[in-house]
Every structure is written in structure tokens, then in C-alpha cells.
């Protein structure tokens, strides 16, 4: 039921993430419905931030490492251009630096012509065990697929 990747969520964006092993990235192609606009024809900034957070976070699951479950500790978003609704977009995420206690990731949303509408940097940390146990039934749905 994740708002971003949950295929069963009737209100969600239903993002599916794929490995780009050659570039060490994950990516998802999607569009944002007018239901999630801030201004007419423009996605709400909170929705854009949520897509970036999810995409950058998925980068730690590259190469089928689905047990690599992290939570966002800090997210910085830079809005470069309006992100249009009802337009095919591509979100890309990658790992910038892995650490023992935290991992730095980044991501961006691109228009079909490659223009970056928004980008992020995030710091991820491990999920406390009491939460990860509760989330176990959802784990099979948190995938990064082979491209």
C-alpha cells in the first residue's frame, strides 16, 4: 500500500524501479496525475520530493539487495524547473557514498528531453528492528527489477 510503489494502492503512483547496472542506478518511468498538482499542470512540490525520496532510497537495493532496508534521515530537494503533470517522467537514483552507519544517495526527475526538473541528496540510516519486523509482510513488494 505504499503511496509511491504500492501496486494495490488505488491512489498511489505505482512506481516500479529497475536496475541500470551499467550506470549503477535505479530508474522508474511514470507520470503524475493532475490529482497531485500544486498549480494547474504542475506537480505539487511535496509529491516531487516524495518521488525523489523513494527513488534515491531504492538505489541501495541495486543488484537485488532487497534486504538493504534503510530510512531517510535527511532529504534535501532542489527544484530546478516545474515538474509537469500528465507527462512521461523518469526518476533516477544512485548511491554516492556507503558508510557503516549511513549511506548518502541522490536522485533526479527528468523530462523526456532529459531536462532535470528536480534533484535530491539524502542521507539514509538503518531501520530500527522494531519497525522492520512490522514491515516484513510488505517486503516482497519493495523490489528493484532487472532491466
Describe the structure.
With 147 residues, the chain is mainly beta. The protein has one domain (21-130): Roll (Thiol Ester Dehydrase, Chain A). The protein has two helices and nine strands, in the order E-E-E-E-H-E-E-E-E-H-E. The chain has helices spanning 45-58, 129-134, and strands spanning 17-20, 25-30, 37-39, 42-43, 70-79, 89-98, 103-110, 116-126, 144-145. The strands form two sheets. Strands 5-8-7-6-2-1-9 form a seven-stranded mixed β-sheet, with helices on one face. A two-stranded antiparallel sheet has the order 3-4. The radius of gyration is 15 Å and the shape is globular. The model has no long low-confidence stretch (mean pLDDT 90).
Annotate the secondary structure layout.
Elements: E1 17-20, E2 25-30, E3 37-39, E4 42-43, H1 45-58, E5 70-79, E6 89-98, E7 103-110, E8 116-126, H2 129-134, E9 144-145
Parallel strand pairs: 1-9
Antiparallel strand pairs: 1-2, 2-6, 3-4, 5-8, 6-7, 7-8
Amino acid at each position: 500500500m505504499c503511496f509511491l510503489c504500492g501496486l494495490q494502492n488505488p491512489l498511489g503512483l505505482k512506481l516500479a524501479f529497475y536496475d541500470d547496472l551499467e550506470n549503477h542506478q535505479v530508474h522508474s518511468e511514470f507520470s503524475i496525475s493532475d490529482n497531485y498538482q500544486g498549480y494547474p499542470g504542475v506537480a505539487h512540490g511535496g509529491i516531487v520530493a516524495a518521488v525523489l525520496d523513494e527513488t534515491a532510497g531504492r538505489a541501495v537495493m541495486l543488484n537485488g539487495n532487497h534486504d538493504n532496508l534503510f530510512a531517510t534521515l535527511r532529504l534535501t530537494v532542489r527544484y530546478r524547473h516545474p515538474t509537469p503533470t500528465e507527462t512521461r517522467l523518469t526518476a533516477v537514483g544512485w548511491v554516492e557514498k556507503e558508510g557503516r552507519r549511513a549511506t548518502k544517495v541522490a536522485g533526479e526527475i527528468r523530462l523526456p528531453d532529459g531536462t532535470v526538473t528536480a534533484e535530491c541528496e539524502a542521507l539514509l540510516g538503518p531501520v530500527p528492528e522494531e519497525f522492520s519486523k512490522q514491515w516484513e509482510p510488505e517486503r516482497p513488494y519493495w523490489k528493484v527489477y532487472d532491466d
